Structures are given as C-alpha cells and as structure tokens.
Automatic annotation (TrEMBL):
Family: Belongs to the bZIP family. CNC subfamily.
Gene3D superfamilies, sorted: Transcription factor, Skn-1-like, DNA-binding domain (1.10.880.10)
Gene Ontology MF, one: RNA polymerase II cis-regulatory region sequence-specific DNA binding
Protein name per UniProt: Nfe2 like bZIP transcription factor 2a
Start-end of Low complexity biased regions: 153-167, 345-361
Coiled coil: 514-559
Classification lineage: Eukaryota, Metazoa, Chordata, Craniata, Vertebrata
Entries under InterPro entries matching the protein: bZIP (IPR004827), bZIP_Maf (IPR004826), NFE2-like (IPR047167), TF_DNA-bd_sf (IPR008917)
Keywords: Activator, Coiled coil, DNA-binding, Nucleus, Transcription, Transcription regulation
Length: 611
DNA sequence: CGCTTGTGTCATAAG
DNA sequence: GCCTTATGACACAAG
C-alpha cells in the first residue's frame, strides 16, 4: 500500500510535468491520460472489474440456461428440446419459455419459486444483452441501500417509471400483481443477491446524464437534465448504465474505505432523484460543495419533474421543454472555492481543480472571456459580480463536474482516481468529427466557445430564461417555436433568446465559413502549384515546338530550292528563285509564278499552264 | 509594443 | 416576410 502511494506520488509529479508540457502545447505523442499512473491503475481496475462482471454474467447465463433446460424435455424422436407439459398450476407460458414476456400471467399457487425460476423470470424481465455500451436516453443510476440489495440491470428495458420510482425496491410499473410478487420474491433470494451484489455496489451513486443526445456534449446541458430529451427514443430511462458505463465499476476504488462506510450509512436516504450534489456529498462528505444550494433547488425541482415524468411515461419533446429548470437556479449561490472555473486544462471548463493551474485566481484569467464592457454591463445587472459568477458556475455544473469532485481526494491526500469521460461534441457534425482524437490544442480552442456559451448562459440566467443555450440554438425552428410558445416570455427575454439563437448559429456559421475559407486557400494553393507546373510544361512544349518548326521550315526551304532547281524552261534554262516562285492552288496543282508581276500574273493565272 | 492568429459578433446579402 | 446560411469586417484576447 505504501509502495502504491509512493508510486502514485511520483506519478503525480510526473503528471505535473506532463501537465506543464501539455499546457505548452508540446505534443507528448499520446493523450495526457496515458501518462497518468492513476489513470492506468484505474484502467487496470476497470479491466479487472469488467472481467469479473463478464464472469458473473456468464454465470448468470449458465444458470439461465439450466433453468431453461429444466423446463424443457428432450424429445426422443426429434432430438429437440420441447417445453414440458404444464404442471398442475402451469405458467401460462406453455409456449417456448423464451417467448415469455413481462406480460406473462403468473398463477403459481405456491408462494415460493425456485432459484432457477427466479432467474428465468429475471432473464425474461431483464434480458441480459450485450448492450452495456448502448444505453440510450436519460440514465439514472440509482443508489440502493446495500441491505435491500435491489438492483436494476443497466440492460433493463424501458421502465421509466420504475427507474424513477422513489422507492428503489418497487417493481417496475405495469407489472401484474402476480409478477410483482414473484419479483419481490426474486429480489429476496440470497443467491441472486450474491450474484448481483457487485452490480449493486456499482449502483451506489447517482448521476443524471444524457448519453444519446447531442446536447450531452455541451457543458451546460446537463444542468437541465430532463429538458434535452428531444426524441422519442430517449424516453427510456436506463438505470445505472451511465455510471457503470462511465466509471465501469471503478467506484469502489474511487471511494476511500472510510467513506464507504459513510456511504452505506447514507445510502438509505437516497432515492431515485438523488442528484449530483448528493453524489459528491456521499462520496466526499468532507468536501463542502456549496453550489449545492443551487442543486438543492434543482433537486427539488427534479423531484417534481421526475414524478411528473413518471406520471407521463410517453415523453414528448415539449414535455421536456416544459420542465423548466430556470427557477431552480434562483437560490443558487455557488462557492467559487469548490467550483473551480476554467483551469486552462483545455479539456473543459470543468476539469480538475487539483492545482494543475496554480496561481490563477478565480476571477483571473480574463474572467472567462468577458470583455471589460461586458463585465461592466454585467455589473449593472441586479445580481452582478459574485452572484453572477456563482450562477454561471451553477449553469456549468454538470456530470463532468462530478469529476471535479472526484478529484478532490487528491487534495486530501487520496490517490487521484480521476477519470475523464470521453468528450462528445454537439451540433455541428463537422466539429464532432475527430474531436475525441483531436490534439490537445483543439480542446483548448474549444474552451473559448464554452466561455462564450457561459456568457450567453449568464445573460439567459439573468433574464431567467428557462431553456438551455443549447436548446435555444440547436432546436429546429418548429420545436423552438413550440418551446417558446409554452412559456410566457417578456420582450427582453424573447429578444435575448433570439439573440442567443442568432449568435449561436452565426458562430457555427462563422466557424464553417472560416473552415471553408481555409480549405479554399489550401485548395487554391494546390491548384496554383499544379498550374505552375502546367505552365512550365507548356512553355517547354512551346519551345520544343518552335524548335521543331524552325527545323521543318529549314527542311522545307531546302526541299523548295531543290525542286526549284530542277525546273527548266523551253530552252532548258533554270528559273531564278528571285524571279519566280512556286505556288499551290487549292485544288493541289502547283504553279510557277513570276515574282515581279504578281498582280498581273494573278489576273493572268488561267493563262499559265500547270506544271 | 506591434504583429499574427483565432474567435465571436454584427451587418448584410442570398437562398 | 421570416429563417438560415454565408461572408466581410471589426473587436478582442492570447501568443
């Protein structure tokens, strides 16, 4: 352990050095994380965790298969497995058990079910699929008290109401009473609990995150978690999957053992609406995240909105838009000492405040890109200066910020277990491409746009605009208008929203324009090069042609003289080339023409006899 | 301190 | 006429 700490310590020094190099835009030849000992260690742990998970999964599958086979019998004639004839109290699933769905009507008389039956029920209810990385929609990782040992598979199909149920042990909504009873029974099975224990551990935290929406990439977006579900498929609320996918079982390693106990102590207080603040609180109870006041508001808001959602399972985009989070910010007062602003890490404005950029005051570094005039303008706002900043921090608070919190243990001497989520990009497909693999400088460039959005967000915040900047900018005009129509906005709010939309779109347009311009310049430069080559080639060709022409003229002249010298008049005298010339008519006949009497000869052409 | 570069924004034209 | 997109021009920050 001490060794590990030492390695981690020297690793931290290395990381500091790498940080410095990185800040200087020195290409390290690999992403920064590659050099991070903690990162590598975590990857190792993740690997182990995955293997363990896979093992468990296979075990579960084997059990399932056994359960399946137990319900089948071998047909001696065909060699096929066929369903067993129903027992006295048959399951309705006289069909192939694989076809059993959640709608199956459990009429089992006995109050007990075999483990295999339970497993089968589980398998049928929550088919184990290879979809761990394909979670869609709003992911809600539900914290579950260890004693209850309730888990929801990340692969769980759409069960939004269940996922949002305040009571984590409640069976999914819509389950028939019998099925519900079976469900409860299943959950109480010690084998199952053991089998699934690990996943329960993994679910000891909660984060709301959107994994399949473009807005998710935006730093601001997750602050309106519900508001970004803009399509039908995101209705699905997957439990745990995001956190598991993202941290992939790394939570136990993140959490210091001391804190784990506290987690267990606190866990029962948690519910499905467990917010980001709670997350931080639980994992780092010593860390006071005072921006949580804003989060409290949000949490409270979410409590209502989530239950609303629960009551209205079929989402429509407008349902989501109408989940106005704006009011939640009213009470937000961020503590700038915990919610560090842009650390110039370039990764995002939410990177670790682990002292990687010391010496920067909170308000320093250009005050997040605010121009003086803008700062002045902002200072004229009622809630200016500090509150504005805090509001902005709140607006920027997002799951990535959780990583900020996650990295806090480093300050307290804990090994840093920071893990960067793969950044996604939004809106502009052209921008999206390659951003994950972009050099660090790209990330740094992105920073400014983030700050810009913050500026607009702050304006939006100041006027209590109940939408995210991303929504304002990126929604199709119809959806945008619909969204606007659902809220009573005053003139200034309307103007600001339209300005934000215009600016946002124009910003993207300007980026595209510049990109195109650069491409044009590069293309034109290439074209210029090729044209120069062509010119050189043509000039060479031309000189060659001139040379050839001269040669041919010379040759022709000698031939002409040769022919001319062979001409004789009636007396056998030769013609003088200075007095006569040979000319060819259009029909191919050759004439001997006296040079002096050209005009006359031309008129007398017909009197001359062809040669 | 001036220059260059990158970016956001505005005004305007065009689709 | 409204909206989006494209682009020149300008301002600003950072290197």
């Amino acid at each position: 352990m001490m060794m590990e700490m030492e390695v981690a310590h020297s690793g931290q020094q290395d990381m500091d050095l790498i940080d410095i190099l990185w800040k200087q835009d020195i290409d390290l030849g690999a992403r920064r994380e590659v050099f991070d000992y903690n990162h590598r260690q975590k990857e190792h742990e993740l690997q182990k965790q995955r293997e363990l998970e896979e093992e468990k999964r296979l075990h579960l599958l084997q059990e399932q298969e056994k359960a399946l086979l137990a319900q089948l019998q071998l047909d001696e004639e065909t060699g096929e497995y066929v369903p067993r004839p129903p027992p006295s109290a048959p399951l309705q699933s006289a069909v192939t058990p694989l076809e059993v769905t959640q709608n199956v009507n459990f009429t089992e008389d006995g109050d007990t079910m075999s483990f295999d039956e339970c497993l089968q029920l589980l398998a049928e209810t929550f088919p184990v699929e290879e979809t761990e990385n394909t979670s869609v929609g709003l992911d809600t990782t539900v914290s579950v008290p260890g004693s209850n040992n309730i888990m929801r598979s990340p692969e769980q199909p759409a069960l939004p109401s269940a996922a949002l149920s305040p009571d984590p042990v409640s069976p999914p909504q819509g389950m028939s009473p019998d099925l519900e009873q079976a469900w409860m029974e299943l959950l109480s099975l010690p084998e199952l609990q053991q089998c699934l224990g690990m996943q329960i551990e993994e679910s000891l935290s909660t984060t709301y995150r959107l994994s399949n929406s473009p807005e998710v990439q935006n730093p601001n977006f997750p602050f309106y978690p519900m508001a970004s579900l803009t399509d039908g498929e995101t209705n699905t609320l997957n439990v745990c999957s995001e956190f598991i996918n993202t941290f992939d079982g790394s939570v136990p390693s993140i959490v210091p053992p001391d804190n784990l106990n506290q987690i267990e102590a606190k866990a029962p207080q948690l519910n499905a609406n467990f917010g980001a603040e709670s997350f931080c609180d639980i994992f780092y109870p010593n860390t006071v995240l005072e921006e949580s006041s804003g989060q409290h508001g949000l949490e409270g808001n979410e409590n209502t909105t989530m239950s609303d959602v629960t009551n209205k399972p079929p989402f429509t985009p407008m349902d989501l838009y109408s989940l106005s989070p704006g009011d939640a910010f009213d009470s937000s007062k961020a503590n700038v000492t915990t919610e560090m602003p842009d650390s110039d890490s370039g990764i995002s404005s939410n990177t670790s405040p682990n002292g990687s950029s010391p010496g920067k005051s909170v308000y320093g570094d250009g005050a997040f890109g605010y121009s003086d005039s803008e700062m002045e303008e902002m200072d004229h706002n009622p809630g200016s200066a500090e509150s504005d900043y805090s509001e902005m921090f709140s607006l920027n608070f997002q799951p990535d910020d959780l990583q900020t919190a996650v990295s806090i243990p480093e300050l307290t001497g804990q090994p840093q277990q920071q893990e960067k989520k793969p950044k996604q990009q939004n809106t502009d497909p052209a921008e999206e491409i390659g951003h994950n693999t972009a050099p660090f400088t790209k990330d740094k460039q992105k920073k400014r746009s983030d700050m810009r959005l913050s500026r607009d967000e702050q304006r939006a915040r100041a006027l209590k605009i109940p939408f995210t900047v991303d929504m304002i900018i990126n929604l199709p005009v119809d959806d945008f208008n619909e969204m606007m129509s659902k809220h009573q906005l005053n003139e200034s709010q309307l103007a600001l929203v339209r300005d934000i939309r215009r600016r946002g779109k124009n910003k993207v347009a300007a980026q595209n324009c510049r990109k195109r311009k650069m491409e044009n310049i590069v293309g034109l430069a290439g074209e210029l090069d090729s044209l120069k080559e062509e010119k050189e080639r043509l000039l060479g060709e031309k000189s060659q042609n001139i040379k050839n022409l001269k040669e041919m003229k010379k040759e022709l002249n000698s031939l002409y003289l040769e022919v001319f010298s062979m001409l004789r008049d009636e007396k056998g005298n030769s013609y003088s080339p200075s007095d006569y010339s040979l000319q060819q008519s259009t029909d191919g006949s050759i004439f001997l023409v006296p040079r002096i009497k050209k005009t006359f000869i031309k008129r007398e052409d017909n009197r001359l006899s062809p040669l």
